[in-house]
Design goal:
With about 350 residues, the chain is of the alpha+beta class. It is built from eight helices and 14 strands. Helix content is about 30%, strand content about 25%.
């Protein structure tokens, strides 16, 4: 079980009594160009998964499903707004006001020059309603802590599939018990494997160091909100520690694969010890030539606000950068059974 930043929550509650309790609005960080061979379509959906909508759009526009792309998956059991990108070169722009799919509404569409690729979004804005909260004071205190100090940037349960099936399949693949040929399935399983390894290192830092802001010699540090990283030199630790505590820098944890792991010295030794029992998964990622990367261990939600409707119901709103999971924030608030569905990345 992964560790909590503020200790295991005392309060219980219901995260998603109905889809309208979990609203996600995708933020690409830009507007469509207005011309080009692609068409960006913004859709509000409820009860539809992302791939199903993409296939319906392809059928409507009379194009191949591979010519429809999107930045990230969104859960069907939520109200979500996201962009889809259709490649229609040399064709008249389809009239998307005629697109009909139960649970979907086209909000806008416009031409664009570049294809929308996986992960090419700035973040997501969330509005959550948490119900049947057993301890209002505890949740209130933790909300104040999270607003100030953030929460562990764990990958949510969605990444690992129902009952951790994606991770189990990845472990069987790594042990040469099964072969995986389908491209999409391979991608899901490899993603689950490296996500689990990342979560393990973050959890170990919390368990053994009690912090995600303490800088070790050799740590790979990111400028907050940026993807690049640099190695923490021992002689620079006091200044780097101050900048990390001031939210200018983030300690990162590994997304294992082939290539430079990023850390050195003490930090590298810590990560290697943390993952010492995961040699099969690490070997699988290297064998499949998944490129090693880094990810911030901590995320601080932007514009976190909340209002209590009554003693047992609270509405939250906040913005998270691409790749961060809203239910990892909720996990620090409420004591929930494992396997709670996630919504967005």
């Amino acid at each position: 079980m992964t560790a909590w930043l503020y200790g295991q929550p005392a309060a219980s509650g219901v995260v998603k009594a109905n889809p309208e309790d979990f609203v996600v609005i995708e933020d690409l960080g830009y507007r469509p160009d207005g011309d080009g061979e692609q068409v960006l379509v913004r859709i509000r959906k409820n009860g539809c998964n992302t791939r199903f909508v993409a296939e319906a759009l392809a059928k409507f526009a009379k194009i191949h499903p591979r010519d429809v792309s999107f930045a990230g998956m969104k859960d069907r059991h939520a109200v979500t707004e996201q962009w889809f990108c259709l490649r229609v070169p040399g064709k008249e722009t389809p009239d998307f006001t005629a697109f009909q799919l139960e649970g979907c509404e086209v909000l806008e569409s416009a031409r664009h020059r570049r294809k929308l690729r996986t992960g090419a979004l700035q973040g997501n804005a969330f509005t959550l309603i948490l119900r049947q909260i057993s301890d209002q004071a505890s949740v209130e205190q933790r909300l104040q802590q999270i607003a100030q100090g953030g929460f562990p940037n764990y990958f949510g349960e969605q990444r690992f599939g129902h009952a951790n099936n994606n991770l189990i399949m990845a472990q069987r693949w790594a042990a040469d018990e099964i072969r995986v040929r389908e491209r999409n399935k391979r991608s899901f399983l490899l993603s689950a494997a490296r996500s689990a390894l990342f979560n393990q290192v973050v959890s170990d830092r919390l368990s053994k160091m009690g912090s995600l802001t303490r800088v070790m010699p050799g740590d790979a540090l990111q400028l907050t909100g940026r993807g690049s990283w640099f190695v923490a030199a021992e002689e620079e630790l006091p200044g780097l520690q101050a900048r990390t505590e001031n939210n200018e820098l983030r300690v990162t944890a590994p997304l294992p694969g082939s290539g430079d792991p990023g850390t050195q010295g003490e930090a590298l030794a810590f990560e290697q010890q943390s993952l010492a029992h995961e040699t099969a998964l690490i070997a699988l990622l290297a064998r499949e030539r998944v490129e090693a990367a880094r990810r911030a261990a901590l995320v601080v939600p932007r514009d976190l606000r909340w209002s209590w409707w009554d003693d047992v119901t609270v509405e939250l709103s906040f913005w998270l950068p691409a790749g961060s999971f809203a239910t990892s924030l909720v996990r620090e608030l409420l004591n929930q059974p494992d396997g709670e569905a996630d919504v967005a990345e």
